[in-house]
């Protein structure tokens, strides 16, 4: 029996014995055994820090609704350790400084043990630098920068995890599209990226995966409206291919100015530009462009999630937000205590080998754990098999835009990326 299994069984045996004896005056002792603040019946304090306002506000409400759906499913089953989960939802405003203020409030005033967020990498990175020292588990549903694989450690314990894939995978795929003759077969490439942690990190990974000569690495300012000088710099040395890491809002302006300027080159777009409206608005311009996109295997959890989320089910990275809270609650129950350290140390194990459990099956998962069995949560976003860095490998697809629609040309299995990040 593992240490976590002993801890969980000790908790269950202790609470059962106390309940049978009617020793209600020992609730404080139960709290010290079960972890977290307060007695064994007190809610487990958790949170979310998501972009309800700001640059990513189009996605924040759906993400937050997904967290709240996970909370409902968890609490309908009695919660981990027989305690309900209370989620304090905060608005990151898509700003690092605002998110940091909200995080400090959650830690100092609500006493959270874990939270879901943030969305953008630029907001998640500063938070992740503090979570280990605070003993709080952070699980981002949408931050993909490769840098986060190395942040959030206290000794060998990692307090930062994510349900979104590491952009190192996407960079490998972008480079492959540029390299292979079946797609572009470029000799020279340039990379255009939004000037933030996400853009820079992914562009560097794509550059590393490209076998030819990289002639330019050009950042762009999200607040600009004229990108003529940026494009001039990007095409100064006549690249055959351009890797574009950005967002639809600025992307629309950039590609219109590229088209008007007659610069040439074949484009490979990042997942951040994978938006139906973006391609429809630029139907003639984007036709023939390539796209590197996660294509995770679907699980039964996706059907449950989509059925209960309604109109919000298609929100970008919303399924990942659901999985972020659900996995933390599973880790708490397995550990037998509600602390950030307990979540961090058990987060990987509830996501991999064992009996498969799905969204909405928290009671089944608890029963299996209580019987000393291992579980393998299959997420709404993907199978979410966590590696040592507490992030999943995803299957990817190479796509091409054809008449504003995305056609899948090739599927790249998860096994292709093992050992490559």
From TrEMBL:
InterPro entries: BCAA_transport, Leu-bd, Peripla_BP_I. Coiled coil: none annotated. Keywords: Signal. It comes from the Archaea. Residues 43-354 form the Leucine-binding protein domain. The keyword Kinase does not apply. Transmembrane segments: none annotated. Residues 80-101 are annotated as: Disordered. Pfam families: Peripla_BP_6 (PF13458). This is ABC transporter substrate-binding protein. It comes from Halorussus caseinilyticus. The lineage of its organism: Archaea, Methanobacteriati, Methanobacteriota, Stenosarchaea group, Halobacteria.
